[in-house]
From TrEMBL, chain A:
<feature type="transmembrane region" description="Helical">
    <location>
        <begin position="21"/>
        <end position="39"/>
    </location>
</feature>
<dbReference type="InterPro" id="IPR003544">
    <property type="entry name" value="Cyt_c_biogenesis_CcmB"/>
</dbReference>
<keyword id="KW-0812">Transmembrane</keyword>
<feature type="transmembrane region" description="Helical">
    <location>
        <begin position="158"/>
        <end position="180"/>
    </location>
</feature>
<keyword id="KW-0997">Cell inner membrane</keyword>
<dbReference type="Pfam" id="PF03379">
    <property type="entry name" value="CcmB"/>
</dbReference>
<feature type="transmembrane region" description="Helical">
    <location>
        <begin position="192"/>
        <end position="215"/>
    </location>
</feature>
<feature type="transmembrane region" description="Helical">
    <location>
        <begin position="125"/>
        <end position="146"/>
    </location>
</feature>
<protein>
    <recommendedName>
        <fullName>Heme exporter protein B</fullName>
    </recommendedName>
</protein>
TrEMBL record, chain B:
<keyword id="KW-1003">Cell membrane</keyword>
<keyword id="KW-0201">Cytochrome c-type biogenesis</keyword>
<feature type="transmembrane region" description="Helical">
    <location>
        <begin position="63"/>
        <end position="84"/>
    </location>
</feature>
<comment type="similarity">
    <text>Belongs to the CcmC/CycZ/HelC family.</text>
</comment>
<feature type="domain" description="Cytochrome c assembly protein">
    <location>
        <begin position="9"/>
        <end position="184"/>
    </location>
</feature>
<dbReference type="InterPro" id="IPR045062">
    <property type="entry name" value="Cyt_c_biogenesis_CcsA/CcmC"/>
</dbReference>
<keyword id="KW-1133">Transmembrane helix</keyword>
<comment type="function">
    <text>Required for the export of heme to the periplasm for the biogenesis of c-type cytochromes.</text>
</comment>
<dbReference type="InterPro" id="IPR002541">
    <property type="entry name" value="Cyt_c_assembly"/>
</dbReference>
Length: 220, 244
């Protein structure tokens, strides 16, 4: 299941193509800073809309990062070799997902204190935001890998990927932002976290299978 | 158990089978549509509270129910296509998708037309409206994904996979949206024990629902026949059929 060679390869690729994961992080911060400019800088207003903004910016930046996930491997024949060969395709998919999360999800979690500062989020909400990002970004990575695998051989990627994947993000958006909202008015948010965890585990069980079959279809 | 189904996996057999079915389906769809809609729109009593504007349910409810029914049919075809590697089932997925999308759009538009006088707004972010809108996005995703490949076969397979992924996600999306906001009225006719709708309104509604279901089948047959011809155009039997 876990193959260190694949993981090392993905990490080495990321180290060599820094723009692939640095740009989405920059994009995340830029989108976040556009909202106060658009709706006005009143701290109360920002605090109300912060949970939604954070998660929408996260969704969009992960989406941006995922467009080219499989494109290069598809073009230079790596995926074809993997499908034809004896290596486990599942291990490759898991390595890809892990690398995607390390390069796009993890930075967002590390950035969450800065985000809280920008949007004026106070302590309980900050913790909730970090926790929802911790549970939600792996799910985002899984779904993006799925979308990317589906559109791998498509002639026009881009907007198509958004059309496919954004509807699938909706439950995550609802529960994650509602957890932060509950925390910011002093309510418990364990229920939302439990649902996020449940969705993550379900996706972890099913999505890699769907991704491997999408890869197989695309090279057949 | 399903041995009798096997011949229909062959495109030629299926083409002729659909051709045989099509006139019956078309005629009964038309008859049921006329009966249900004219009865429902013109001859049922007005609602004591909503007046005449409730009559749009005779279009709204059938299209909403069948938009979900079409998705179920599409996903079943996708499952058959992917598990048993049956080509015609992939084409069935693509045959159903635009019909389902149209039903979804009809349900949304008629719902908006009803919402304006009743709720005072064209659109509210209610759970059912939102899930129906997302259903439309899922349909459009399947259609768009299929169109994005230069290799027709790969496009068909990938869209089937997406249809199947969508059907797993649909309940999750539905319940999360439900949990998020609810304004739409509860189900009226699914309570089989004692429907909270008067029989004089119920019968035309049920006929309209049946009409939309039969119309869905008829249009699917029609589109599937076309898809078979397009995809199998190099086969001798198609050449002979079109006289080329």
């Amino acid at each position: 299941m876990v193959n260190m060679v694949f993981i090392q390869r993905e990490l080495r690729l990321l180290a060599r193509q820094k723009a692939d994961w640095l740009n989405p992080i920059l994009f995340f911060i830029i989108v976040l800073s556009l909202f106060p400019l658009g709706v006005g800088p009143e701290p109360n207003m920002l605090r109300i809309i912060a949970p939604g903004i954070v998660w929408i910016a996260a969704l969009l930046s992960v989406l941006l990062a995922s467009e080219r996930l499989f494109k290069d491997d598809y073009r230079n024949g790596v995926i074809e070799q993997l499908v034809a060969g004896r290596q486990s395709l599942l291990a490759f998919v898991l390595a890809k997902t892990l690398a995607n999360w390390l390069s796009t999800g993890l930075p967002l979690i590390l950035l969450s204190p800065v985000v809280a500062l920008l949007l004026g989020l106070q302590q309980p909400a900050l913790a909730a935001m970090a926790l929802t990002l911790l549970l939600g970004t792996p799910l985002l990575s899984l779904l993006s890998v799925l979308g990317s695998a589906l559109t791998m051989a498509a002639d026009k990627g881009g907007i198509l990927l958004a059309l496919l994947i954004l509807p699938l993000y909706i439950p995550l958006l609802i529960f994650a932002s509602s957890a932060i909202e509950a925390a910011s008015i002093g309510l418990g948010y364990q229920g939302q976290l439990a649902i996020l965890l449940a969705m993550l585990l379900l996706a972890l069980a099913l999505v890699p299978m769907a991704v491997t079959s999408a890869l197989r279809i695309n090279v057949s | 158990m399903f041995k009798w189904l096997d011949p229909y996996a062959k495109s030629e057999t299926l083409y002729h089978f659909c051709g045989k079915l099509l006139p019956y389906l078309m005629v009964s769809a038309l008859a049921l549509l006329l009966l249900g809609n004219i009865w429902g729109l013109a001859f049922t009593p007005a609602d004591y509270q909503q007046g005449d504007s409730y009559r749009i349910i005779h279009i709204h409810v059938p299209s909403a129910i069948m938009s979900m029914g079409a998705y179920a049919a599409m996903a079943s075809a996708a499952f058959v296509a992917l598990v048993w590697q049956i080509k015609v089932a992939h084409w069935a997925v693509l045959a159903i998708a635009p019909i389902g999308a149209t039903y979804t759009a009809i349900a949304l538009i008629t719902g908006m037309a009803w919402g304006k006088p009743m709720w005072g707004a064209w659109w509210v972010w209610d759970a059912r409206l939102t899930s129906e809108l997302i259903l439309l996005f899922l349909y459009l995703g399947v259609i768009a994904l299929n169109g994005a490949f230069s290799d027709r076969q790969v496009g068909a397979k990938v869209s089937s996979l997406l249809a199947l992924i969508g059907v797993i996600n649909l309940p999750i999306i539905h319940f999360s949206v439900e949990w998020w906001n609810t304004l739409h009225q509860g189900a009226t006719i699914t309570k089989f024990a004692r429907p909270s709708i008067d029989p004089s309104m119920l019968w035309p509604l049920l006929i309209s629902i049946l009409a939309f279901a039969v119309l869905l089948m008829a249009l699917t047959c029609l589109r599937l026949r076309t898809a078979i011809l397009v995809n199998e155009q190099h086969r001798p039997w198609v050449r002979k059929l079109v006289g080329g």
